[in-house]
Specification:
By secondary structure, the chain is α/β, with parallel strands linked by helices. Strands 4-12-11-10-9-5-8 form a seven-stranded mixed sheet, sandwiched between helices. A four-stranded mixed sheet has the order 1-2-3-15. A hairpin with a 2-residue loop joins strand 6 and strand 7. Helix 11 runs parallel beside helix 14.
């Protein structure tokens, strides 16, 4: 249905509009090239729909303002890092107070105990440790899993993403595992450390775990980083049964699936992982993450790590568990990511999805909408993908870029990696309905 020549023409039109209306961001970008690689402080910041990134001046709640004084509805929200909204009132004062009293000591604060107790209440796991990022939490969980099981492999699902964890940069092509094409400078071929199967494929999972050489399965309980892919009925039950039967640890990464509710997908669906990791949103944007253990895993860890060499064993970090992170997590969990937060925002996410679906139905487009709690996404295919391979095959970079850039030029920021929108406590019904209007306008422009 898409005229590709027209699509290219529309992209060029929107790029010109973007450049004309963002002179200050462009000037800063050109200046930044002299000292920052590719003009940005972090390489992913080049992956925005315009010809250069926006430079931000300030943000509050569901909105931010760029240096050209354009105000945006932010549905990206730092790709979940600001799912709380920018500078949420429930945590800002506690964070500022902690900064005034000292940020890091390599010693615990009382906030740490409160956070551990609250994490246990939400997720069900009794013991916790703290990292600086979800990547580190996943990395440490995998190291501990290999350490206590004495097994060689980990297992992940095709087109997963768990941060910059070496073992997870593996994918399948025609059933053959290999290093992901985008994998930058791998230390070793990930097929030496990792098995990979498709999500929702019980038969392949059974075959991969049967030899008893997999230390842990690292998985999102619902995939999100290749788009939202829900587990099929019975799949997570089969995953839990197989991992227990084969002595394989089950680690759930809830960093994005935290959008499901106060206890993430695990809490919402009563899951029983051996370990769990979550980062990003739980500190209101302050870098932090946690990883939790069952009683059984904690018992295996205790006494198995030499005290004298614990600081150089590959787990931890000087800034992990710092006082600022603990204060941010306590304030966020206590005052921001509450039951009321999720109840309100999930309802708005439903409205977002319904609005997009109404346009799709009206225009008879072969597209669909998926939702996971307060996270929503639309796809350029007519059926829901059941695994990462199907999702990756549906990717349409040009169409993504057009939709994102059209929205950006009209004051809406979507997540740059796919068509995902997050709802914060400060997002309004008017914001949702404005997105529906802009989405409709972009489709009508595209169809001609």
């Amino acid at each position: 249905m898409i005229d590709r020549t027209r699509l290219q023409s529309l992209i060029e039109k929107e790029l010109q509009l973007f450049e004309e209306t963002h002179p200050r961001s462009k000037a800063l970008y050109e200046r930044a090239k002299a000292s920052l690689l590719d003009g940005v402080p972090m390489n992913w910041m080049v992956k925005w729909a315009g010809g250069f990134p926006l430079f931000v001046k300030e943000g509050s709640g569901a909105y931010f303002t760029d240096v050209d004084d354009h105000r945006y509805i932010d549905f990206c929200l730092g790709d979940t890092g600001s799912m709380t909204g920018h500078a949420p009132t429930g945590s800002v004062e506690a964070i500022a107070d902690r900064v005034r009293k000292g940020v890091t000591f390599m010693l615990p604060t009382e906030d740490a105990i409160w956070v551990g107790e609250e994490l246990t209440r939400r997720f069900g796991l009794p013991y916790w440790q703290v990292a600086v990022s979800a990547t580190d939490a996943n990395r440490f969980a995998l190291r501990l899993a290999r350490h206590i099981t004495k097994r060689k492999y980990v297992l992940v699902f095709n087109y997963c993403y768990h941060g910059t964890v070496d073992e997870t940069f593996i994918t399948l092509t025609d059933g053959n595992a290999h290093s992901r094409v985008s994998n930058i400078g791998p230390a070793i071929d990930p097929t030496m450390t990792t098995k990979v199967v498709e999500f929702n494929d019980i038969e392949a999972l059974e075959k991969a775990l049967a030899p008893g050489d997999v230390a842990a399965v690292l998985a999102e309980p619902a995939m999100t980083n290749i788009g939202i892919i829900h587990p099929e009925p019975g799949f997570l039950d089969a995953l839990r049964e197989m991992t227990r039967r084969t002595g394989t640890l089950l680690i759930y990464d809830e960093t994005h699936t935290m959008s499901s509710g106060p206890g993430g997908y695990t809490g919402a669906h009563g899951l029983k992982p051996d370990m769990l990791t979550v980062g990003k949103a739980i500190g209101s944007g302050i870098p932090t993450a946690v990883y939790g253990f069952s009683h059984e895993v904690a018992a295996m860890i205790r006494g198995s790590i030499d005290l004298e060499g614990a600081d150089v064993g590959g787990i931890g970090g000087t800034l992990a568990g710092n006082a600022l992170s603990m204060a941010a997590m306590r304030a966020t969990l206590e005052n921001v990511l509450t039951e009321e937060y999720f109840e309100r925002n999930i309802a708005l996410a439903e409205r977002f999805a319904d609005g997009v679906q109404a346009v799709i139905d009206e225009k008879q487009l072969p597209w669909i909408v998926k939702r996971l709690g307060c996270r929503t996404e639309y796809w350029f295919r007519d059926t829901a993908p059941r695994n990462g391979g199907e999702a990756a095959a549906a990717a349409d970079y040009e169409l993504d870029r057009y939709m994102h850039l059209y929205a950006l030029n009209r004051g809406i920021l979507m997540t740059p990696f796919h068509n995902m929108a997050l709802i914060s406590s400060q997002t309004t019904i008017e914001d949702i309905d404005y997105h529906t209007k802009v989405f409709r306008d972009s489709v009508e422009e595209l169809l001609g």
